[in-house]
Amino acid sequence: MPHVAPRYVAEGPQVGIRHFTHEDSAEFTSRARESKELHQPWLFPPDNPSSYARYASTLIEDPAKAGFLVCEKDDGGSIAGFININNIVRGAFQSGALGYGAFAHAAGRGLMRQALGLVVDHAFGPLGLHRLEINVQPANAASIALARGCGFRLEGFSPAMLHVGGAWRDHERWALTAEMRVPAGQD
To answer: Domain spanning 10-177 has what CATH number?
Structure first.
């Protein structure tokens, strides 16, 4: 299923992160369909070619977004998940909101924690951001554990914050600033 893909933006021992391409459609949508039970009711990644084309185009073309595929290095670069920085605001704010999801075959193996660390380093390094925020539905224990495990701190609660799966959902706000970041290998 994997194809020859562009170089990684950053690499860890088990994963590399790279930007989305339109050529990733078949693998991404197949993984999304295989992972519906894991994802729902928390998120709904595109699971067909037309919705993937719209999704990827936005991540590729919109300067207020940066999308990263999490790829397994020892499995020919197969897609293990995704992490997106959305709502990038420049100027005095220098902030972005993270969204992410693992695919079922890769869940629970520590790949997303490694990848999230790479994305955070990239955001605070080359992208020049100062603050990242993760908004998580309170019952999504795996996502909260990932945020906490990567050094994000709970900042608050936002009732009916995001429209997910046909309803307005409450979210916890987790955040990390460049000053709070523990350098890789020192955590």
So the answer is: 3.40.630.30
